[in-house]
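Board work, copied verbatim: Glutamate--tRNA ligase
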Amino acid sequence: MSKPLLRFAPSPNGYLHLGHALSALVTWDAAEKLGGSALLRIEDIDIGRCKPDFAEAILEDLAWLGLDWPEPVLCQSDRFEPYADAANHLRRADLLYPCFCSRAEIAEQATDTDPDGAPLYPGTCRHLSNAERIERLERGDPVQFRLDTETALARTGMLTYSVIGPTILDRPQIRYARPQRWGDVVLQRKDVPTSYHLSVVVDDAAQGITHVTRGKDLEAATDIHVLLQMLLGLPSPYYHFHRLIKGADGEKLAKSRGSPSLRDLRADGWTAEDVRRAVGF
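↓ predict structure ↓
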């Protein structure tokens, strides 16, 4: 087996908070216990929300926590070509189709929700004829590309992945993936030729990641990642899902909810040791 390699992969669409600190510390601690190393990856495919200032702040905050990493740091915004190549592989296998639906249309038509609670795409554009697809593409209608999950699963059959827990040194356990509960996920967005699901799978393989540490809120997303790994002929790492840091209201911390950032805490006099103690390190 290759030397264990892990990664911490934040998005620079805001400042890091205590939840990010926990995730980073879990990753570096796991790498040390496994006798491996940890990488930093900047997941900045959302070019509208991700900012260079936030990316720089990530480096500063992690260094303040006492963490270091090999250079250079991989930035996903530099890797649209390999993501497009992976999407084209799926397209040639007739597993990717264009979707012209707006969010409002999906919300109106959906009869169920995905594991994140979002309206589950009902597969509207999967049933368009080739002539309709070509006409709309040539017309320049806004388009994103979705995975035909049902067809993909018919080819792969049952999927499993290995989970390590509750500690990183425990014996791996086999779990069954259930990608069907996500429906036909978007793999190429309207604004960029990729998505979180596609990019993370391509990059984990390209960087040789052997163990993925994630918060429990991302556990369900592993269903799609395992499916993509099989379809693209990529290795599947071990997975470890850690606890979440929650606020006084019982909800997980989030940039979108205005959770105090590490920079805010530092300005209030917190030390790196204070942060470590607060998240259980």
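The chain has two domains: 1-77+245-281, 79-208+217-234.
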